[in-house]
Amino acid sequence: MSSKRIYAIFLRQFFLLKRSPSRIMQIFYWSLLELTLWGIITKYLYAIGGEKFGFITVILGTVIFWNFFTRVMNGITISFLEDIWSRNLINLFASPLRVGEYIAGLLAVSIMQTFLAIGAMVLAAWFFFSYSIFQFGFLLIPFIFILFISGWALGIFTTAVILRFGPSVEILVWSIPTIIMPFSAIFYPLEALPTFLRPISYAIPISYVFEGMREVVHKGTFNALSLAIGFALSFFFFFAAIAVLFVMYRMALRKGLFTRFMTD
């Protein structure tokens, strides 16, 4: 893999972002809007007697972590879609660029966009709602790590599916996070789900992050085994997504499917 080609992919997205106010706004707008909405709701719940349930800590923490996950994913998928929309994808892969280098460049873009968006959310939460995500201390490290790897896995998998089936399935970029949301134990514990749905939640790595966050808030402890399972699952899906991507890429090359990205 060439570090120069990886950097070129990152630099291209950076310049697109730098020269487009609408793209910059897209990074911050929805995250800050969602934070503001839930922040006001939690303040109201706190005011009517919900302080003993830790509404502010749980809900605002949940909103920040969920946005972290989706921003990591979108850093890959939206950048990929931009290459499709600009009819540039086939030009990239007609060059010496390898698919692994392309994805590595998008991972770097994902890191940049995620920390920009979440940094703004963390500052806004502290300034407007006196909420600090850093209250979780060193547990932030495994939480963030699992969210990062899981977001990358989902982003790479979605990219692979679009490579195989074409731009007509690009709606998956927005629908897949919504599909897994009910099973991720974001706003409620796993026990709230029907029994027959819980195995799905146990297979989703980020559910262990949200369960762990609530356990820290309500009990002051955390389950190291659960976090270890979250780590293992996130890495499993990450490497599985990479394998699927390479299979779909070779299939697209063999069947000439890249021509769809010039006409669709």
From TrEMBL:
What's its membrane topology?
Multi-pass membrane protein
Keyword field contains Transport? yes
Q: Which Pfam families match?
A: ABC2_membrane
**Transmembrane domains' residue ranges:** 27-47, 53-81, 102-127, 133-157, 169-190, 224-249
The UniProt record lists the ABC transmembrane type-2 domain at 22-256
Q: Which GO terms describe its cellular component?
A: plasma membrane
GO MF, one term, reads: ABC-type transporter activity
Sorted UniProt keywords: Cell membrane, Membrane, Transmembrane, Transmembrane helix, Transport
Q: Where in the cell is it found?
A: Cell membrane; Membrane
Instruction: Report the domain of life of the source organism.
Output: Bacteria
Q: Which family does it belong to?
A: Belongs to the ABC-2 integral membrane protein family.
Name by which UniProt lists this protein: Transport permease protein
